[in-house]
Amino acid sequence: MAIPESYQAFRRTEGTAPLTIEQVTEQLPPIQSHDVLVRIHAVSLNYRDIAMLDGTYPQPCLPRGIPASDCAAEVVSVGPEVNGFKPGDRVTTIWDLTNLTGLEEGSPEALGGDVDGVLRQYAVFKDQVLVHLPEHLSWEEASCITCAGTTAWNALDFPRASGTALLQGTGGVSMFALLLCLAAGVQPIITSSSDEKLNQARSLGPAVKTINYKKTAKWEDQVLRLTNGRGADVAIENVGPATVKQSIDSLAQRGTLSLVGFLGGLDAEKFPDLYFPVLVKRLTMRGIIVGSKIDQQALCDFLAEKKVSLKPLIDAVFPFEKSEEAFAHLKSGKHQGKIVITL
């Protein structure tokens, strides 16, 4: 495969939020000893990608940076000291380029935020941040692994997960978590305000239990009813302060609350008093920021083992030239599963 001198990418615009993205031409850097040049075939989007444009992301991000953290790519060339990767290999990156074992300290280098992301035709990465992709997945399906897949894996505490899992909403993380639950024999309960989306979730398997939180305001009571009064073993909290108390009330004794998202905002005044409920139930609260390379490799191994029975759900696919439309579709909230851009 010929190595180009330049390639096309999208970068965030500058100025006051809300921002947008614009297509630009980039130059390829020289390949160093442990570098791997990849051609990106597909990119999937996450909520954080639009939060950075809207000015609602809670962390600083690289000004005018290339967005997106999740991709599926093909190795084009490797540096002279690279081991384990060769041209033609199917690979993806980890989300935080410093998080190899989960024990590292210091500032993260999260793709699409702290450093340039993957919404581009080509990229150069150090070999240590790459992971081989399961062969049975398409480029589009494989592009959903880095953030949504690894976050779901980590939040459910795989491979030790068991019992019942409460999943909020039908976005990328929750739908990936739903598939992991079904593949591992964990009972999933998933919420949405859309009966249509809940029907689609139930179509994935008879074990799927659903709750429309618009029709059932005290949905935590419904979780208890669906679990015969026991509660869920783990809850993936995607909304934030507005629903965290309900998630806690839906958990079983010694359950785990995985704090993943902030779809409802981070207004501190809405944060309830959690000390006594957590104390009485002897709960574990975990802050989940995706996961390590070890987590992501374990997920890829699990996906490879399950093969056809477990594929990421994709809501819509957009060509690279229509990346702005993909971002708009994500912002609309009408999707179920992942939104993917193909290159």
From TrEMBL:
It comes from the Eukaryota. GO terms for molecular function: oxidoreductase activity. This is Alcohol dehydrogenase. Residues 15-341 form the Enoyl reductase (ER) domain. Pfam families: ADH_N (PF08240), ADH_zinc_N (PF00107).
